[in-house]
Write a structure and sequence with these properties.
This protein is mainly alpha-helical. The chain contains 13 helices and no strands. The protein has one domain. The protein is globular, with a radius of gyration of 23 Å.
Length: 250
């Protein structure tokens, strides 16, 4: 499953989190996502022991999906953090390939669905309209249509992974175009979405870590995998820097 699919799968769940539960990241999100991915694989080896202590199996199984969703949300937030001038430059660089992708998918669909009037009509309806905003909507609509009707595409050896890419491009380009047009209100919306995805991932990671610390409190070999690696490293580094600074002053 791709990160974009993880994002789509988790979207309703993290958007439904109560506002009071949503947290801003305490550490760099890239580091948090990697730590969660590492925790997922570490906890798989201890799955039986963790479940025996009451941890739901789904908490472990969904952690990697939540991590993928958070990675996409962070990418969308990063891509949004442009000045209008930077966003216009980014749009100018990326939009020609996006138009080519849209045209290529439409061309493929017209052939693949040539014997299905209903689907062919849907392709024609999507093709109506023009402009940058229409491009983004077309990519999203084409991706959805193709995912719902993959068999004719597979028969002509079309790489259906292209549809995931088109969906991801639509999400990212929508943010870039909004920023290029000076729509500042999207800043807050995209950041809140990122924070929600981060919180959703962190909730599962914290449950696993807490359970792991409980189960393996006397087993250092397994316990180390349930610690907050990034924060511990930062704490040790800061202490080391402080000690070095003190020695220098003395």
């Amino acid at each position: 499953m791709s990160d974009q699919q993880d994002y789509d799968l988790c979207y309703d769940a993290f958007m439904a989190l109560p506002d009071e539960e949503v947290q801003a990241p305490e550490i760099p999100v890239d580091a948090a996502v990697q730590e969660s991915e590492n925790l997922y694989f570490w906890s798989l080896a201890d799955k039986a022991e963790l479940m025996a202590a009451g941890l739901p199996e789904t908490t472990i199984d969904t952690l990697t999906v939540r991590s993928g969703a958070c990675r996409v949300a962070e990418a969308l937030w990063k891509s949004e953090r442009f000045t209008p001038q930077e966003a216009q430059k980014e749009w100018a660089e990326r939009s020609p390939a996006a138009y080519e992708l849209r045209d290529r998918i439409q061309h493929t669909f017209r052939y693949a669905y040539r014997n299905n009037e209903l689907l062919l009509g849907r392709v024609s309806a999507i093709a109506e309209g023009s402009g940058d905003a229409d491009l983004i909507q077309d990519l999203s609509d084409l991706a959805a249509l193709g995912k719902k009707n993959p068999e004719p595409l597979q028969q002509i050896n079309f790489d259906v992974a292209t549809l995931d890419f088109a969906s991801s491009e639509a999400d990212e380009l929508a943010v870039i175009l909004a920023q290029a047009n000076g729509e500042k209100e999207i800043d807050n919306a995209v950041k809140i979405t990122r924070d929600r995805a981060y919180t959703y991932m962190k909730q599962a990671a914290d449950e696993i870590k807490n359970c792991g610390r409980y189960v393996f409190w006397k087993n250092e070999a397994r316990l180390k995998g349930y610690r907050n690696i990034y924060r511990n490293k930062t704490y040790k580094k800061n202490n080391s820097d402080n000690n070095n600074n003190t020695e220098t002053v003395e």
